[in-house]
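Message: A physicist's question: would you kindly supply an amino acid chain plus fold tokens?
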Amino acid sequence: MQYKSTLNLLETEIAIKFIKDTFEKELAKALKLTRVSAPLFVQPESGLNDNLNGFERAVRFDILTLKKDVEIVQSLAKWKRNALAKYGFSEGEGLYTDMNAIRRDEDLDALHSVYVDQWDWEKIITKSQRTLSYLKKTVKAIYKALKKLAKAVNAKYSISHSIPEEITFISTKELEKEFPTLTRKQRENAAAKKYGAIFLYQIGWDLSDGKPHDGRASDYDDWKLNGDIILWYDVLDLALEISSMGIRVDQTSLVKQLKKKNELHKLENPYCKDIIDGKLPLTIGGGIGQSRLCMFFLNKAHIGEVQASIWSEEMIEENAKKGIYLL
């Protein structure tokens, strides 16, 4: 059957703003966050850029007046922790911001674009809150905001969503045990389809086959206290990750993870030095994909229907034949 969007292009643009405004308000309320401005680019030597899985190339350019190179951020995971200290936030308070990035090494498809837009958020916590139970409590607060958004979208546009009342928590080791014969991505699909909404936690350390479930940078999330919010998406019949988040590294977990990835040289950059010296607060934070959220709640078949990016002519033509029109 031919795909047909519920909303036309102009209606979609209006709905995108409604979703972003609504969720942003609910997220800030749920986690006690204040909106701040954020950089589009940083100096490489600062150590503030995110190297993601370690192989993605940041977009770099020179600034004529400064005679220095800068990099477009790949995420704001590290910058936010610095900002909390710099701006004078207190325990229990946090910030959120719009993060726009260019990931030029991304494999383009219905879910992945060169252009990345997300809400990046970060919150100061105490040492006693660096626990799995606090991580789960925070996930539940975000999920409650998602349910409120689902209700608002349905009321305004009559677009319903079958997200369950509760989110299911499952560790990568539990996922491996439940679906031992499947690949990593197949496991995520199977679990998301079974439970509707999952928080897949503890991503980074090796599983029984000696490899991690997925790659994670060594210097921001604590791999024992992190995870992804994943929803089952009927439109594309797959698991849709909408958020990656976690309690951030302290001195101990930072060194362990840097050693695991043979990256102890990073201890020389200012960001890692500040963690070791105790100059940065203990925090929890994450990113929530704006376009993916709009895609999910508007029942779109391609991320290019809710964001303006670059696609090949072949991809544009192929999608048009299916009734999918990219912005």
User: Anything to note?
Assistant: Residues 152 and 158 are 9 Å apart (CA to CA). The mean pLDDT is 93.
